[in-house]
Write a structure and sequence with these properties.
Helices cover 32% and strands 21% of the residues. The chain is built from nine helices and seven strands, in the order αααβαβαββαβαβαβα. Strand 5, helix 7 and strand 6 form a beta-alpha-beta unit. It starts with 10 loop residues before the first helix and ends with a helix.
């Protein structure tokens, strides 16, 4: 597996997906509309509401899952072509007694869901639903999974064990998914084989490297998932 610390155009984003033909899909779908990963919250407040384009021929509900602090809210905010819905709340001392410990820099958490929308290739709309990361929100997590075509599971190599529950829930609910390793500045580097073994992934499950803060990197992670879903449907039929 390529150096997991490199996400800016590194081959690991394209080559580690394990999906044949991903590059071709990338060329077709990377024509995203109305998205700018560098927009600030103030800029988004002034953005005109963007309706689904007439060229759109299909839509899919996609979950973005993972433990608390893995980057779900960041990824959705990075790729969304509309002002994303976020239910971030400041963590309290009461919540700290219930939730797993997080890093000192983490002061907020999603308490309901995140929501965003991205159009791929002008023809396919993905409605992105970010799930809360805490175990106590599992009932809401299961409700959000209803009708989902697939899921992108974000993991953090600094604490792989924290991702086990989210991946297990997807397997229990029979939701197809791909895995994206979110690269942090102090991420621990592992080979692809070691990551697949640690996460107990099936050979056909895509595994990519991404940076949730970077628009192109995050879009490529979603394209890898869509390619996997298309391939899964094709094999079933």
């Amino acid at each position: 597996m390529p150096d997991t610390g490199r996400t800016d155009g590194a081959s690991g984003v394209d080559d580690a997906s394990g999906v044949d033909g991903t590059d071709g899909v990338d060329d077709d779908m990377d024509d995203t509309h109305g998205m700018n990963g560098t927009d600030s919250a103030d800029d988004l407040d002034d953005t005109t509401v963007m309706y689904v384009q007439p060229s759109v021929a299909g839509a899919a509900k996609i979950l973005v899952v993972g433990p608390m602090g893995v980057g779900k809210t960041t990824l959705i905010g990075t790729v969304s072509e509309i002002k994303p819905l976020s239910t971030e709340a400041t963590m309290s001392r009461a919540g700290a007694r219930l939730d797993m410990p997080v890093r000192p820099t983490k002061s907020t958490t999603t308490v309901a869901l995140d929501f965003g929308r991205i159009t791929l290739g002008g023809e396919l709309v993905l409605y992105l639903f970010g799930t809360p990361g805490q175990q106590r929100f599992l009932p809401a997590w299961k409700d959000l999974a209803r009708g989902a075509l697939g899921a992108l599971a974000l993991v953090d190599t600094r604490d792989l064990e924290a991702s086990f529950d989210a991946i297990g829930h997807l397997e229990d609910l029979d939701v197809p998914f791909s895995v994206a390793v979110n690269s942090f500045p102090d991420s621990v580097l592992h080979s692809e084989d070691d990551l697949r073994s640690a996460l107990d992934l099936l050979p056909h499950t895509p595994l990519v490297i991404c940076d949730a803060r970077e628009h192109k990197s995050s879009v490529k992670a979603l394209i890898s998932l869509v390619s996997h879903l298309i391939e899964t449907v094709s094999e079933a039929t």
